[in-house]
Amino acid sequence: MTATAKKHTEELGKVSDFNDEELKDLYEVLGLGAMKFYLLRVDPKKRMVFNPEESIDFHGYTGPFVQYTYARIKSVLRKVGAELTSNLQPSTTNLLPLEKQLILLLEQYQDTIHEAALELNPSVIANYLFQLAKTFNSFYTEHSIANAESEEKKQLRLCISKMSANTLQHGMQLLGIKVPERM
Questions:
Q1: Contacts of 177 by beta carbon, 8 Å cutoff, 6+ apart
Q2: Which of 1, 55, 113, 162 has CB atoms 3.0–4.6 Å from 31's, for a disulfide?
Q3: What CATH number is given to the structural domain containing 105?
Q4: 8 A C-beta contact, residue 96 and residue 157
Q5: Residues 30, 37 contacting (CB under 8 angstroms)
C-alpha cells in the first residue's frame, strides 16, 4: 500500500518541496489510510473485496480523498486563517446554499458518532467523512475564502473551514487513520 501511495502521489507531482523523510511519512500515512478507510467504509455485515488500486484514488470514495481535503483546508488556513477573529458574530440570514449545507452537515457529526457506536458500525463515520469532504470540496470550488464578498463572509468561511478540518481529523482519528497537514 505504501508503494501504491508513492506511485500515485508521484504521478500527481505535488510533493517536490518535501524532503525524503517527509515523503516516506506521507506515503505511509496515505497507504495505511487508504487501506483502513477502504475496509471501514463497508458495513461490517456485508462482504467486500479489497482493491489496492481503487483504495488509493485521490478523487474517489477513499481515505486519500478525505486526507487530501483535510490537507487542502489546512493549506487555506495557513495562508488565510491567521485572519480568523475569535469574536466572530456572522449573520446566518444570508447563508449561501453550500455554506448552509456544510453547517448542517457539521451539526450532524455527534449524532453520526452516536449512531456508529450503537450499531457497532464504523462505516457510518466513514460515509459521513466522505460526504463532508465532498461537500467541502464543492464549497471550496464555488466560493472564495480569501477573497470573499465581505469581511463577514470571509470570517464565516474561515470558521466553516476550520470546523470542517477539525471534524475530518477527529473522524479519521476515530477510524485509526492519520491525516497529513500537507500533501
A1: 32, 33, 36, 37, 63, 67
A2: 1
A3: 1.10.730.10
A4: no
A5: no
Q: Which three cell numbers stand for residue 14?
A: 505535488
Residue the block writes with cell 481515505: 63
Domain boundaries, position 52: 2-174
Q: Give the Cα separation of 101 and 142 in Å (integer).
A: 13
Q: Report the pLDDT averaged over residues 29-42.
A: 94
> Residue 130 belongs to what H/E stretch?
helix 123-142
* Residue 168 lies inside a defined structural domain of this protein: yes
Question: Is 33 among the domain residues?
Answer: yes
Confidence at residue 84, expressed as pLDDT on a 0 to 100 scale = 67
- Total residues found in the chain within this entry: 183
Domain-located, residue 75: yes
Residue 180 lies in a domain: no
Please give the tally of structural domains in the chain: 1
* Rounded Cα gap, residues 173 and 183, in angstroms: 18
- Distance from C-alpha of 29 to C-alpha of 33, rounded to nearest angstrom: 6
Model confidence, pTM: 0.89
Own/partner pairs, 10-17, CB within 8 angstroms, 24+ separation: 12/58, 14/183, 15/183
Do residues 129 and 66 make contact, with C-beta atoms less than 8 angstroms apart? yes
